Amino acid sequence: MKIAISTDGNSGLSRKEAEQLGITIIPTPIIIDGEIYLEDISLTQELFYEKLTGNSQISTSQPSPASLKEHWDKLLEDYDQIIYIPISSGLAAAYDTAYQLTQTEEKYKGKVFAIDNHRVSVTQKQSLLDALKMVEEGKSAQEIAELLTQMGLKSSIYITVDTLTYLKKGGRLNPAAAFVGNLLKIKPVLQNHGEKFDTFTKARKTSEAKNAMINAVKKDLETKFKKEYEAGLMTLEIAHTQNYEAAMKFKTELEEILPDIELKHVDSLSLSVSCHIGPGALAVACTMKY
Prior knowledge:
alpha/beta; six-stranded mixed β-sheet; four-stranded parallel β-sheet; 12 helices
């Protein structure tokens, strides 16, 4: 039984990485000034941030049912089954669209498994790596789907936003709060535990924000993920938006504070996420691995 692993553009997995791993990506459409771009195909990181920090109007969409069907049909020419892992249903409707297709189209029943394991970016990437490992072990698509669903909520993300401007642009913060926050140089720390992002705390300095994120991750590892942590099943990941040097420094700091846990990835956030938070963001995640 040949099983393909596929995802959308929200995992932060580059097309080059995906090709090396044997994972296929359905790109997430990004709309800039009314024109549709596809990350890593017609839109580079450099062009995106040039547009984002200018006056361009940027929004995101999701892969259409037609593009999903075309992608899956092509994969099924060479594979017997497909594991499809899109962004968390708490953040977008992509999973619902994919799941409906697997239930209403006879040709996909028992062949395509759309999985909502409540992850995004580096945590979603870990799910893809877990799926690959399960395939190598000979697990069926049904078994993989069940395991990934069970593991889905075993992750936390904490992210510091450098500016409130883009949250305001996206309608996720009222203009008055954004103005006052930027004036006072407030750096909000957001959290995600599988559903939507919400506020965790606020800081005045980057160092305060990083300390808050580190303490939050340590608490999660010592409490709700204690069993998995002690079993060696938790990993750390770092993500950023056009903030590589700070991310690498943060990596060194985390490895000194938590030397007994593997820090697996330091990745750029996907552009579909970045358009809502802007450049200069820094995030840490702790994630259960298979």
